[in-house]
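Service request form, structural biology core

Requester: graduate student, group of Dr. S.
Request type: structure prediction, single chain
Budget code: on file
Notes: please return the result as structure tokens.

Sequence provided:
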Amino acid sequence: MLRVENIVKYYGENKAVDHLSFEVENGEIFGLLGENGAGKTTTFRIIMGLLEASSGDVFLDGKKIDYSVTDQIGYVTEERSLLTKMTVKEQIIFYGVLKGMKEEDILEELKKWLKEFQIEGYENRKIKELSKGNQQKIQFISAVIHHPKLLILDEPFTGLDPINVELMKKAIYRLQKEGCSIIFSSHQMEHIENFCEKLIILVKGKAIVDGYVGDIKKEYKKKNIVLRGENLPIDAIEKIPGVISVSKKNNEYELKISEESVASKVFAKIKNKKITKYDVTEPTLNEIFIEKVGGVHE
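Core staff response, request fulfilled:
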């Protein structure tokens, strides 16, 4: 288990991380979100022991993180950190040896991962000869070749087409089942919603949203209504107090309402119409992120 306790990090007078605390259980995928400059990368570097916090502590399985522990951490960076003149095999051996592995064990693991990512036979290709998507796969393999206890994923799907996104998802879920603690960061909120049970949203290094995704959505009063039917009184619906907006997408209307009780007022306006769809849904994580982060900037 990863435990981050009240970490603070200053760069001069600038507070990059502001009393941040959270836990990631074994086999849990945790979301750490925020705009660029929110403090995510600084937090990652503190967790990995690359930066020293101004105050606060980080523990992995009860032991304070230092260089004796960092070999148990894997990190997929947003920007690729591959040595492009090396072959795939040379690259992975290089990273594996740095993590204390024997070469024969590295090659055995590499063979398994190349098969899983459907790039068997690529071990002797140079990194620079690979597509962006295949480079991203090699970046991932380099981070997990040593079976880390903690894996940090910063925009792991960059450069991947939908088929390869699914391959990467399967790999992440496999690591989760093996008990790996995973911190996931992405600007693509649908990935966070699919993967993460708990999350934090950072603004200027401070957690402004913290908790289980389901609870966060329930506490957020605004809801959405998806509506489809014939001769709908849209003008009247727009005038209902609590209806924030009405937009049409294809043959459906999407209503944003201030709270769930407004839904009954909308239904009262349309109950005598021919309705083929009426769904009251939770807001998307993207909507919550925009409002929470945007509200801080106002």
